[in-house]
Amino acid sequence: MRQSSAGSALESTPGLLVGPRSATNAGAGVVLPGSALHLARGKIQQSAAVWRSERLNGGWARVDLPDSGAKGEAVSAQCAGHNCVVAGYVDNAVALWRLSPSTVSRLPDVPQVASNPRSPIPAPLVSGAGIIEVVSAGLNVVVLTGGGQHWALSRGPVGRAASSALAGGWLNVIAEPAVGPAVLWRCPVKDLG
């Protein structure tokens, strides 16, 4: 049953349009990555944001993600408890953020991968201290691996990244080519980066 957002951080106002794009669990709550469209007189700015609940559909708060550029949007997230990695776009390039209950920061030195902000971006995959992000870049999938100051970029299959998962030391990607059926591409995680 759809519930009203009136009076919560999820409510749009004359000066702010909220736009959650996906959802994932975070402890007892939910995280909704998306964008906040700020409507000031004569100026419109779209910034990346997430909405967090303390428990299911209660205690909502908006968190504006830093360094969102002229146009930013959060698209997906992966959470372990209340700590999350958020993936999205800033000015048509892929961006990643770390989000905890008390802090939020954009990850530095992520390779500049141009991508269509209307494309889906699978949730980041967290493996130990490392992060794997699968991105659609033009006609190909690109795999980013890193998490600290060192990031590597590997070429994936032809097509648009529909989803990704880690299983048994393998990265699995479903790619949708422009023509033909979707394909499953697999690569050992140790061979990335």
Tags for this entry?
single chain, 193 residues, mainly beta, 2 domains, five-stranded antiparallel sheet, four-stranded antiparallel sheet, 16 strands, globular
Short recap of the structure:
With 193 residues, the chain is mainly beta.
Per-chain topology:
Elements: E1 16-20, E2 24-26, E3 29-40, E4 43-52, E5 61-64, E6 72-80, E7 83-90, E8 93-99, E9 104-106, E10 125-127, E11 130-137, E12 140-146, E13 152-158, E14 160-167, E15 170-176, E16 183-188
Antiparallel strand pairs: 1-3, 2-3, 3-4, 4-5, 6-7, 7-8, 8-9, 10-11, 11-12, 12-13, 14-15, 15-16
Provide a descriptive summary of the structure in words.
With 193 residues, the chain is mostly beta strands. The chain has 2 domains: 1-107, no CATH class; 111-193, no CATH class. It is built from no helices and 16 strands. The chain has strands at residues 16-20, 24-26, 29-40, 43-52, 61-64, 72-80, 83-90, 93-99, 104-106, 125-127, 130-137, 140-146, 152-158, 160-167, 170-176, 183-188. Strands 1, 2, 3, 4 and 5 form a 5-stranded antiparallel beta sheet that branches. Strands 6-7-8-9 form a 4-stranded antiparallel beta sheet, with no helix packed on it. A 4-stranded antiparallel beta sheet has the order 10-11-12-13, with no helix packed on it. Strand 8 (93-99) and strand 9 (104-106) form a beta hairpin. The chain is globular and about 50 Å long. The protein starts with 15 loop residues before the first strand and ends in a 5-residue tail after the last strand. The model has no long low-confidence stretch (mean pLDDT 89).
